[in-house]
Target: UDP-glucuronate 4-epimerase
Amino acid sequence: MSSENNSLSKTILVTGAAGFIGFHVSKALLALGHKVVGIDNLNDYYDVNLKLARLAELGIDKEEAIQDLNVTSSTTHDSKMIFLKMNLEDRKALPELFKKYNFDVVCNLAAQAGVRYSLENPEAYADSNLTGFLNVLECCRHTKVPKLVYASSSSIYGNSDAVPFEETANVDHPISLYAATKKANELMAHAYSHLYGFETIGLRFFTVYGPWGRPDMAMFLFTEAIINGQPVKVFNNGDLSRDFTYIDDIVSGILATLLETSDNTSLYKLYNIGNSQPVQLLEYIEAIETALDKTAIKEMLPMQPGDVKQTYANVNLLKKDFKYQPKTEVTQGIAAFVAWYKGFYDIGR
Model:
């Protein structure tokens, strides 16, 4: 791995900038002195106020965030990022954005997230994850963006028993529409790298958690339920394990792929990005109980449609190419999340 003039400021597009991972990536890039242009459609899949609070941390006030500025009227700030409320699938605004800013690299983290929600609203996944991603690829193609780093997911491995999951495994049997759209993204990226000669790097995220996390994720749901004395829903009667990965470790991997080059000269790359230390669900809940000093009421439930029994990342390839090294133990990460949660929601003061 070598520096890609990392000391020089780059102009970087971060899609999904008000989302959990996009917020943290934007914050880290700004701290390094890069110019960040962020977009997000601020949909109501979960609490929009949390998204607006993340943007406020990045220097974007609420009134600025929610207005529908067009690309030409968006303001430029010397000390903070530029933000535009925008859908990925907007075939007029997104190309205009790419032409205006001439991005050095693009980080596509915007997507309709969630496995279970894909059973209720499949059209949202087609719009954002398929049409939207195609729009990003087309914009990269026509404005000669040299590198696109994009979010894939561990969910594409389905119910594979071959653990740890490796990038070379067959992933032709997704068990949710969400997973299918992520597999489609990888195939689309391959076609565009082959046809148009720009680098695409897909990152298969493994159960990301931490401060400012998504309210639909286990860490958030469990903490909220335990604090409020409500039952914690334990699916498959607790017989589940997840490769829980702390947000700081995820960000370090994303930054490496965005800002560095590797000895791997292939234009098309795929990497697992996880902690590589799966944890049983009941152990995870126990660690949250310890951090909160409160016992959970457990409601044992059957397996949910679209869910998988286990995830476990082999991250050797990302270590080899970009020196990726997760550092955060689950108990440490849970304590950090709980501290943030209590502070954000003003609990226990």
